[in-house]
Amino acid sequence: MIRTIDLGVTLGRTEVLHDLDLDLGAGVHGVLGPNGAGKTTLIRVLATTLRHDRGRVEVLGRSLERAKGTRWVRERIGYLPQSFGYHAGFTAREYVAYLAWLKRMPAHDVPLAVDRALERVDLLSRADTKLRKLSGGMLRRVGLAQAIVNDPMVLLLDEPTAGLDPEQRVAFRELLREIGVDACVIVSTHLVEDVAHACHDVMIMSEGRIVLASTAQELAALGADSEHPGDSVIERGYSAALRGARPPGTR
Amino acid sequence: MEGVRVDDGELLRRTARGDEAAFDEMWHRHAPWLLLRLRRRAPEEASDLVQETFLAAWRNAASFRGVDAGGWLWRIASRRLIDASRRATIRDPRRHPSPVGALAEATASAEEHALADVMDADLATALDALSPELRAALRMTVVDGFSTREAAGVLDVAEGTVKSRTSRARALLRHHLATLTDTPHLPVEDE
Amino acid sequence: MSFPEAWHAAPRTLQQYSDGTLTDTASWSVEAHLPGCEVCRERLAGLLSEQDWSELDARRQELRLAHQPAVNAPALARAPGWASLRGVLGPWWAWVGVVLAAFAAVTVLGRAPLPPTSLLTSWAAAVAPLVPLVMVAMVYAVGDRDPAAAVTPRGGLELVLIRTFAVLVMAIPTVTLGMVAGDTAGLPWLLPGLALCAGALALGPSVGVERSCVGLAVLWMAVVVAAMPPVGLTSAASLIEPVGTTSVLWGCTLLVAVGVIAVQRDRFDLPGRLS
Q1: Which of B19, B102, C110, C266 makes a 20 to 30 Å CA pair with A5?
Q2: How many CB pairs under 8 A join A and B?
Q3: pTM above 0.90, yes or no
Q4: Contact A67 C156 (CB under 8 A)
Q5: Is this complex's ipTM strictly greater than 0.85?
Q6: Which residue in A164, A156, A181 sits closest to A123, CA to CA?
Q7: Pairing relationship of beta strands A154-158 and A27-32 according to DSSP bridges
Q8: DSSP secondary structure letters along B10-36
Q9: Cα–Cα separations (whole angstroms), residue C203 to A180, B49, B57, C255, C265
Q10: Where are the beta strands (DSSP E) in chain B?
Q11: Of the candidates B59, B60, B90, which has its C-beta nearest A181's C-beta?
Q12: Quick check: B30 and C25 CB within 8 A?
């Protein structure tokens, strides 16, 4: 559903992404990495909000070179940016409905779709509360509701669990796994536990490249008897991978 | 309700104003067929789904427009079915939902079809000749109104598989009907 | 293809459907029929088993309707609602403010005295063409800045067109009324006004709409200064109050700007460099 070939992005003078090759289908894919690794830039390129400089990007089989293709893709994706703007005077319901309208959902579908999206993120009880009165975690869930309102085939989330309490994070991951049954979900995060519990596979990025693409289990295996820093096995595996270790049999 | 029969649209408008008696009447009219239809697609979750559907209907009654309340309710129900199906897949990745439902896989003879008088007997016979998987794919897209992607989610197969099954089913139907009736007769609509 | 008028499923068929013994293909037909036929639904309800009815009754009991949020959400019943308009155009008070300010400016300046050697007929001529430009800048400043909203099919060119339309609908009557009130009706402000507005949008994809508005406003003010004493350039004055040839000039500029927008309309939808 998402393919990139030799993707490269330069912002200012820095080459933020180098020669990135991706081929992702349905499922929940995690992108891990330290700050500055290029995770957000990658998500932005796939979300069609940032233009790439080199290579090819194909989302749902369409390249993003032409406006018509870009509009077609945008109807079918969902994007939760790291800091999303909102109108404080909107209620949660109004905001999600506004985004649904922007995404060209048929008018008669919108009320039910908004209701379903708010229910899936468990915000129905706050549906008619103004956004300025919602806590950070709730705002994040509103953002998620907006991203899923059109039942997208590709869902791109940039640090989505920031501000959520542990119980909400569990619910969040469950929802992602549910969506990942037939959609391509890409989650950029620096929280290793997110990866362990929700993602089918993980890409670790560092300095604009993917240094390791593997599964959560393999990562844990890497960390099993290593002495790299980390509180959990997966964290150790992550540290190890950043330092160049590889599980047997991966690229 | 006594006296003049109120139509579904009016019941939903009253429901939107909080009239629980109107909601009850909607329940009595529509819960039975929804239960039976959902049971043929998700036997274990059917009553849950009926309950969820009506809950959503209660919340969203104000947004009902038009005249087809049954269709509106089925749309809500089918979305719930997809969500439940995906959740079931996570719980058990090796689960393969029965494509037809646990019930009534038997096919019938041509005379039985004619007696039942619900569908052109030739068409019914032709449909019977399809495998359950092909029939299920066709049913999901044609009768239930799912997109190929949604049908894939409920049937737990790849989207490409749904597409190829529906084309194959249509091709087989056309062929079967042509041979049965001896005329190039195509009652099955092309999309 | 016509259907028989009142086709209904036979009782036996409905009974089998209720029991679950009806064939798959016949069930299709029944299922496609039921949502639209209240007669058959009623019959089916009558044929439903005791067991099924008690199951349904139990479920109905479980439905706690009283705690359900928002029985009524009429604001959303028709999309786009007010909220969508507000997202695209910004808050109403910004518009009210701008409209009132523009009206006041055009009126007051229309009646304001000019320096004796001025080449212009009225100060209003200097201000009126800026009104659409200021409105464009405003709507982009207070309208949506949400990155999630920008990445939508409507968030690109369509958004630009809706906003431009709103600006023109608000600007033209406001300025016209202001000129009537300020006794300056008939001043040829429309062509320069439209041309500046179109120019801002044409430059938008390259430098950003707000920047192009500011830049063009500054340029315009420079022309105004050039027309005033002590500089007093006639060419500048004729640009501000175009007649004859300068009208044609402005007309062409407008056409060119619109042409540029049309030619690069895709750029409004494509992902940008800066994000």
Answers
A1: C266
A2: 37
A3: no
A4: yes
A5: no
A6: A164
A7: unpaired
A8: HHHHHHHTT-HHHHHHHHHHHHHHHHH
A9: 41, 54, 49, 14, 11
A10: none
A11: B90
A12: no
Does B50 lie at the interface with C, CB-CB under 8 angstroms? yes
d(CA C233, CA C43): 90
- Three-state secondary-structure class, residue C26: helix
Nearest residue in chain C measured CA to CA from B39? C20
List of domains in chain B: 1-96 (1.10.1740.10), 107-191 (1.10.10.10)
Taking the C-alpha atoms of residue B127 and residue B174, their distance in angstroms, rounded to an integer, is 10
C159 close to C80: Cβ distance less than 8 angstroms = no
- Give the pair of three-digit tokens for residue A84: 């999303």
Q: Distance between CA atoms of B164 and C79, rounded to whole angstroms?
A: 36
pLDDT in tens, chain A (251 residues): 888 888 888 888 888 888 889 999 889 999 988 888 889 999 999 999 888 888 889 998 888 888 888 899 999 999 999 887 777 788 898 899 999 999 999 888 888 999 999 999 989 888 888 999 998 889 999 999 999 999 999 999 998 887 788 888 888 888 999 999 889 999 998 877 777 788 888 998 888 888 888 887 787 777 776 677 777 777 888 888 887 766 665 54
Exposed/middle/buried for residue C258 (C-beta within 10 Å: 0-12, 13-18, 19+): middle
String of DSSP letters for chain A: -EEEEEEEEEETTEEEEEEEEEEE-SEEEEEE--TTSSHHHHHHHHTTSB--SEEEEEETTEESSSHHHHHHHHHSEEEE-SS----TTSBHHHHHHHHHHHTT--GGGHHHHHHHHHHHTT-GGGTTSBGGGS-HHHHHHHHHHHHHTT--SEEEEESTTTT--HHHHHHHHHHHHHHTTTSEEEEEES-HHHHHHH-SEEEEEETTEEEEEE-HHHHHHHHHT--SS-SSHHHHHHHHHHTT---TT--
Q: Between chains, do C271 and A94 touch, taking CB under 8 Å as contact? A: no
Check CB contact under 8 Å for A111 and B60: yes
CB A19 within 8 A of CB A41: no
Residue B164 at interface with chain C, using a CB cutoff of 8 Å: no
Q: Is C156 within 8 Å of chain A by CB?
A: yes
Residue C86: count of CB within 10 angstroms of its CB? 20
A96, A98, A103, A104 alpha-carbon torsion, rounded to 10°: 130
